[in-house]
Amino acid sequence: MAVKMIIFAACVATTLAQYAAPAYPAQHAYAQAEHAYAPTPYNFEYSVNDPHTYDVKSQSEYSDGNGYVKGSYSLLEADGSTRVVEYTADDHSGFNAEVKKIEGHSQGYKAPYSVPAPAYKPAYSAPAYSAPAYSAPAYPAPAYKPAY
């Protein structure tokens, strides 16, 4: 009986220990660290125009170094249209984007021609197997008779 009481007490203590306050202070994981450097304005842009892979895209972005960012990017979609995204971001309004889709085939884009797969011709004829010969079962077929 004493063993049962010890096991019961251990289970109760384990259950209550889940709700106990930790012995250490909680960490502030989302505290914003102060930058040791001054913000720097920047400006960049790039573009890609690869006719072999139909990879046509560009991006440009500007920042004043005080939290305001303005930029745009564009890419050529598979249907020949161009997607243009113009965005701004700042500490007051957050990130705001305006997406535009320009229909049509820009820069002479044509979807790649896919060659149809060649008809498959096997190098050898299919093997001819004879149907297996099975003998009749050696036991009688089951007979079902209702019991009512």
Automatic annotation (TrEMBL):
Recorded GO MF terms: structural constituent of cuticle
Keyword line: Cuticle, Signal
Assigned GO CC terms: extracellular matrix; extracellular space
Stretch forming the signal peptide: 1-17
Matching PROSITE patterns: CHIT_BIND_RR_1, CHIT_BIND_RR_2
Lineage top rank: taxon: Eukaryota
Protein name (record): ACYPI000983 protein
Originating species: Acyrthosiphon pisum
